[in-house]
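So, could you explain the following?
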Amino acid sequence: MTVQDVIEGFAEGVAEDGRRDTYADVLFQEAVRIGMELNCQYHTPEEIREIMGRLTGKKIDDSFRLFPPFYTDFGKNITIGKDVFINSGCHFQDQGSITIGDGSLIGHNVVLVTINHDLNPKENRKNHYAPIKIGSHVWIGSNATVLPGVTVGDWAVIAAGAVVTKDVPARTVVGGVPAKILKAVPKEEPQETLQKQALMQEISRHGREVEVTYEAAM
């Protein structure tokens, strides 16, 4: 039995498996233990990245930053990109999968939920799982909640206190309960990106000049 077996067991329509459920409980308790280790004493940024690596089961980039406390009841279905910042008090319920793109900022007390419960009493509150996908350079404000199955596009902003029930288009600002589109994000690229583009154009231009000079010399 592997972590991947447990993750695949969260998919809709998968047959019940007692062994898989037992191992899932072991992983849940491991997440609680690692979470207590993370949250109950001071750690350097390097130590935090190492602990988060154990919690997620994945390599955490050196650019990642987190201010504890941080809470998750599984951890192994979280994927974090480069240059991501997570502020204190966040709760990630990740059995259904949480993916965070490069350069994203997650504010205080943000809740990312990938589990829903069946409304029909005969199903006895059966779990239903759906992924949350957060694009690159997304900013999620404090105390926002993102519900199962939501995809957030690149450069989108989720206002503080919002409850996000539907996909958020790229380069939009959403807010409210439930969250609605409030306005668009400007399409200008960051200064650093513009500088890189200018540099590449300059390199390309000089390269062509060298080629022309070489051909003339022939």
The two ends are 67 Å apart (CA to CA). Helices lie at 3-9, 18-39, 45-56, 191-217. The mean pLDDT is 91.
